[in-house]
């Protein structure tokens, strides 16, 4: 009954989809009072349009029986990457009255020189796309899917060699983001190893056929850029993993191409974080039909060199 009573209000709010510039957008949201206190465009808040679309997606998928998770996610990729309360990724559990804000990376893009520059800075994203191999963020509706563990190598911590195993949460996209799987788009901790050499692996589980495994420097890029995936701090990732393991939920990422077009054209009421808009000028969406041929030509133009040499043995 609660779900049925919410849906008409959510659907009725569709005309306010751009939200932040509409005077009564907050009132139209019809979210619980405790959650409405977090609605806004200030630090630690969630913009009305982002919350509206995240709730609409969640309740639609809940009603359709595709999910049963009590929590849902949202991301506002127009905000600075930030950390802590200045973040842009949201976990919301309405029954438990949980509202959490955290940092999240955006796609770094590429600079292909004369073929095109669609690279992004560290704090604010200007370029967005759903093109294969663009390394850019694509806004839209997603569902979380399976979890995949990946061994990245060894590093030294507290004077001992430790294996880094990073979990990847696969996303299933819809609409413009429907190619999330071939793009290998998902979420993971913002950590990596910069490989230096091969060491004798202390654990056979991670050793190659000769008993070696890569060794490198641990890099934490929380709040920075990624290859198009959503990245979180290590501790936040552990919480998210447990929330979605065998229990998928929804993730809505703002902005979609329609939002980018509206902001770029100066449409009244279109929402973008003010600080990032000052930093980037006008945002741009690169359709996959336009960008994928460019990336393909760039790849074909790369010189064909010898295969990479194996890492040296650690000394």
Write up this protein.
This protein has 315 residues and is of the alpha/beta class. It contains 8 helices and 14 strands. Strands 3-2-1-13-6-7-8-12 form an 8-stranded mixed beta sheet. Strands 4-11 form a two-stranded parallel sheet. A two-stranded parallel ribbon has the order 5-14. The longest helix has 16 residues.
Task: Set down the secondary structure blueprint.
Blueprint: H1 2-12, H2 25-29, H3 33-36, H4 48-63, E1 72-76, E2 89-93, E3 98-102, E4 106-107, E5 127-129, E6 140-157, E7 160-173, E8 186-189, E9 191-200, E10 212-220, E11 225-226, E12 230-232, H5 234-244, E13 250-254, H6 257-264, H7 274-280, E14 284-286, H8 288-301
Helix pairs in contact: 1-4
Give a brief description:
With 315 residues, the protein is α/β, with parallel strands linked by helices. The protein has helices spanning 2-12, 25-29, 33-36, 48-63, 234-244, 257-264, 274-280, 288-301, and strands at residues 72-76, 89-93, 98-102, 106-107, 127-129, 140-157, 160-173, 186-189, 191-200, 212-220, 225-226, 230-232, 250-254, 284-286.
Strand content: 25-35%
Structural class call reads: alpha/beta
Helix tally?
A: 8
Helix content: 10-25%
The domain tally reads 1
SSE sequence, one letter per element:
HHHHEEEEEEEEEEEEHEHHEH
Terminal Cα span: 66 Å
Average pLDDT over all residues = 89
Number of strands: 14
**Radius of gyration, whole Å:** 21 Å
